[in-house]
Hints:
alpha/beta; Rossmann fold; two-stranded antiparallel ribbon; 8 helices; 24% strand; globular
Amino acid sequence: MELVTPDPVRLQRPAALTPRPPLHTGPGRQTLVSSLLRPGGEGEKCVADPAPDAESRRGNPPLSTGPPCDRLKLGLPGPCGRAQRADSQWLSWPGSGAAHVAPGPDETLDSLGDGEVRLLQHRRGYRFSLDAVLLAHFAAQGLCAPGRRPVRSPSIVDLGTGCGVVALLLARRVPAARVAAVEVQPGLADLARRNCPLNGLDVRVVESDLRDVGSLPDPGTWHLATCNPPYFPRGRVRTGTDPERNAARQEVLCTVADAAAAAARLLRSDGMAAFVYPAERLATLFAALADAGLTPVRMRLVHPRDGAAAMLALVEAAPRSRRPLAVEAPLVVHAGGGFTPEVAAMLGRSAAGLSRSTAASDGRIPAG
């Protein structure tokens, strides 16, 4: 295996895109982004500090904290919260192409990055985690990796998209791309559809079961397929009563083998697939890729802290490739009382308001 260092260059927001007004993160205001979670973790609840900030004193619409979010034992100091404006007028801004989309009574509005993507999510049920953000960045890096033939308008499909976080991040980072998102659960597919106009992005959302090969969009035409599949076999982890979270954590609606087979069917011969999966189950992922005719060609292990065991693996695979597996330098998430510079750069201003008690999510991954 070849040890390489990943290209540190980040894809930039297109110059023609009007910057979004950020979700304010002044004193007492934290913007939600999910972090690495403990499997089956049950926790008490936490909300944002409701102290007024300079923005509210200047007459801007007030923030409401929405419902509490799960507090999981991740160890960063400080409160966490979900910042959301009481009205929806700020969801649109001149020149952005974004639409007025208000959260429903059982939904929250969350901001990711430097206002880069805003996402409606269910208050209860599946909520995206840091693993989705890491996957989007890893996949985008692969598109512009040294030695890869540049594509003017790459086609990208995200399998099991949930609220659309990976698809929307990639659509924002690769503005010339044609992006689609596949989701089988109607409630999540509806969120993904509504999140597209909210961000002014043209992403095709397909409500479909990825195991139904006949329903997959445009087989054999995609340059990149991404997937954040369920991490554990059915019955392996503690279950709750919410079907969305159960389906995200356990192989209820699909297995990693199903996801690999769907990706292989969708890809062009020169395409690639990107997965995020538990490091302890890499053998299962590699076997599923091999059965689908996909060869791992790039991998990066994710560690909660320096010196801690890897908890996640980011894996890129190509159809019938003879390239050797390139193992990139480890990605470390936490350092001291916050995120490492690399992860903080991915999260942007959102990282400043995060704590280890953040992130109502599906609770699939432990922290160090």
